[in-house]
Design a protein that fits this description.
With 401 residues, the chain is mainly beta. It folds into 2 domains: 278 residues, Thrombin, subunit H, CATH 2.40.10.120; 94 residues, PDZ domain (Pdz3 Domain). The chain contains 7 helices and 29 strands. It has a 6-stranded antiparallel barrel with strand order 16-17-18-21-20-19. A hairpin with a 2-residue loop joins strand 25 and strand 26. The radius of gyration is 22 Å and the shape is globular. The two termini are 20 Å apart. The relative contact order is 0.17.
Amino acid sequence: MKVVTEDQNPNRPSEFDATLEASSQGTFARRSGSSSSSRFARVVGPLLVAALVGGVAGHFTGGSTSGGFAINQLNGSPSGAILPNGNSVPALVKSVLPAIVSIDVKANGLEDQGTGMIITKDGYVVTNNHVIAAAAGGAGTITVTASGSTKAMPATLIGTSPVDDVALIKIDNVHNEPTVTLGNSNALQVGDSVVAIGNALGLAAGTPTVTTGIVSALGRTVTAGTATSSETLNNMIQTDAAINPGNSGGPLLDSAGAVIGMDTAVAGTLPDGTSAQNIGFAIPTATIQSLLKQLKAGESVVNHGAYLGVEIMSNNSSIQQQYGFSISTGAVIMSVVPGAGAAAAGLKQGDIITAVDGTPIQSAQDLQSVISTHHAGDRVKVAYNRAGSTHTVYVVLHRKP
């Protein structure tokens, strides 16, 4: 089991932080699958997805009697849960489910299970890197089972991005597969309705679990790891939709059925032993899309470990209105890590990074992509907007913790 603690900055300015959901340090578990010896769950913080809330509608007819007892009978069919935009959850799930697969990985006598999303008609499937990690380097086998099927199909690992926890596999010898639709994660707002689908608990391949909830927060930075390795994931979507072992790699859908995130982790236990409740995390679709070209080329995406030292989220018109920013693009600094390069250079919470070394920054993904090409010790020129004014500063990048 991988455990995670959420990066946090205790010195956030209160006027900005008042509109942000407070974060608390704790340990978290990734939700990927099971092994032959124990249930494998990956924990990260803060990252959860809310459970499906269903409703049963109908009316009671006049009761009958049996043995002197009055019995009421439900006369009518159950009705599906309705999302705020009027879409039916069952109809949404029915449209997306054919493009969701259960993933099974066998390597070195162990078995891990997770979820994947078909993104091309010729069978390319995106999932979490930690789901298929055991099969990296040809060490194991990967099979996928389509929703509603019992047939396990062999798949090949194409490309990986371990630092982003994203991987691409391809189902062997398939054509004209159903695909998911990728949505715009940069347009998300806190409170948006979401639906999660995944191979929860590995209960039965081809029979995914469906849960619902909302976007609880945006721009979360979480650190996941084991005793031997760890990784920091930036700009994560926090949700209260229920995520369980086996959900990793599955879709977080908006109310139109478009994928706006990939379920990756769930909060676990805090240092004082308190269990976290309804805190899960998903990797934004925009992050996944920024990696697909390299992954499809069969590359292992390399990140040199450079670290700016900020927690960020993508700016948009909704964020601009909420915080009174003068611009609607860029990467908003949610917090600054004490002692890192950004703090030393004077960057502050609420600053909006708009360019690095002359390269425009439109979103959090743009900033992550640019910084990933650098090494620790590099000096970069950062342009940013603060209270409507544009400034520049030089930042020496540290090594990613």
